[in-house]
Amino acid sequence: MSKRSATDRAADGQAFAKASGSGAKRDENEVNDIGEFEDAWEDEIESEEEVVDGEAGDNEDGMDVDELMPAIEESEELPPAPEAFIPGTHVLGKDEILEPDDSVYIMRHSMNVTWPCLSFDVLRDNLGDERQRYPATAYLVAGTQADQASKNELSVFKMSSLHRTQKDGDDSDSDEEDDDALDEDAILEFRSVPHHGGVNRIRAQPLPPSSPLPPASQPYFTATWADTGKVHIWDIRPLIESLDVPGYSWDKSRTNNPAFTINSHGRAEGFAMDWASSGNANPSSLRLLTGDVHSKIYLTTTTPSGFNALSQPFTSHTSSVEDLQWSPSEPTVFASCSADCSVQIWDVRSKGRRSVAGIEPAHESDVNVISWNRSTSYLLLSGGDEGGIKVWDLRNVQKKGTTVVSSPVASFKWHTAPITSIEWHPTEDSIFAASGADDQVTLWDLGVEPDDDEVGTPMNDAPDGARDVPPQLLFVHQGQKDVKEVHWHPQIPGAVLSTALDGFNIFKTISV
């Protein structure tokens, strides 16, 4: 198409040409003879071809004309691919926000709650193990951190309609209706009971793998570490039943008051807590460890008649006890970590209530969290206030009284703020999840061959000074503010739940 000046377009008076470019132009006298049928505009109408011919003629006479330009075509270039945000390497601009890449998620849902929860635990259900179908359902128990002590609650949540994440390019023309592919909002239901004081940590009693949920007539215990210095034990089984059975009315005398309260810590609050079971659903086999900010650890056991809080504490730490973990293979052994930078190993049968082995120091600052591998019982994870993650082989940990310093079998310095939670995968002994105060939830696999041949040293040192990504780092999940705790779902392989200041996330990635 030729290019014409604005003057030419105004003279035409039409958006398209009427005269044929191949037809001869009529003589002026002939036009006048037509009389009343004269078309006053006819002689001024030119086709595009006539304009081209005219311009060519003008050019031959030496007159300046506009240069012919090719037609403007729409660009077929694809928009630039989104760039992966690497914490510590990239910095968000003033008006930039992170957008999730749903192509790497099998499932991803966010849920807001009235008050933030520092801690939660995944509850066992009767929906089966190794669940792969969607929509999924998950149950959890959590305690709040409200602005007033009287507003706090213990809540049991039911997350349902957890559909697969829809991805760009999904084939929506399939003839078969697939419930897995529906993209609907998840549903969050809950039942709550009052809880005096904020909840620092909450843990549900362990149930043996593949065992069903206890009947509604039997207890399902959950312990809460309150900021008042008390540890309360609650029976939450009726709350679960009310979420599943419409119209179910529970006995408030059973649920609204603790079944037992541990007063051993006085007014000292704490965070460390862990249950253990002898391998069956009998409540009389339960054992509960609790540790406080005054470095003391207390053991509470159960008998057929109820709970029994032992009065003599375990005392080898010199600062706040931050986390506790029972051994998955030895019923009398447990591990603890502390703000005194150490990890201690204990045996409840030892006299004097002193630790039998230890790693001193385990980190250069407070050791915030630990996790004992359920499949390979000699591996222990620890996360420190400096942001470091370390893997320990307990077969190399020396007994008390030796001067040999233990070294980790692996060490990672990816997080740039304190590690707030860490947990081994329930069935894969090389995979673990961690969360940090840098708003990251990270998934790791020790089975990936490291580039560093030197055992016990950081594996992410970049020679040019730029930050490198450790090969063992599988996935970084972001988008939450001030992440406090992370757990795997034991019945939905690969599903991860996390709690933060702005609510809960549940997701499953293509990496695990």
Q: How are the strands of the biggest sheet laid out side by side? A: 1-28-27-26
Number of strands: 28
Largest sheet: 4 strands, antiparallel
Helix content: under 10%
Instruction: List low-pLDDT spans.
Output: 1-38, 172-177, 461-465
General form: globular
Quickly describe the structure.
The protein has 512 residues and is mainly beta. The chain has 5 helices and 28 strands.
What does this structure look like?
- With 512 residues, this protein is mainly β.
- 7% of the residues lie in helices and 31% in strands.
- The protein is built from 5 helices and 28 strands.
- The chain has helices at residues 6-12, 28-33, 48-60, 237-244, 252-255; strands at residues 105-111, 119-123, 136-143, 153-162, 187-194, 199-204, 221-226, 231-235, 260-262, 270-276, 287-292, 297-303, 306-309, 321-326, 333-338, 343-347, 357-359, 367-372, 379-384, 389-393, 410-412, 419-424, 431-436, 441-445, 473-477, 485-488, 495-500, 503-509.
- The strands form 7 sheets. It has a 4-stranded antiparallel beta sheet with strand order 1-28-27-26, with no helix packed on it. Strands 2-3-4-5 form a 4-stranded antiparallel beta sheet, covered by helices on one side. The protein has a 4-stranded antiparallel beta sheet with strand order 6-7-8-9, with no helix packed on it.
- A hairpin with a 4-residue loop joins strand 19 (379-384) and strand 20 (389-393).
- The chain is globular and about 100 Å long.
- The two termini are 57 Å apart.
- The model is unreliable at 1-38, 172-177 and 461-465 (pLDDT under 50).
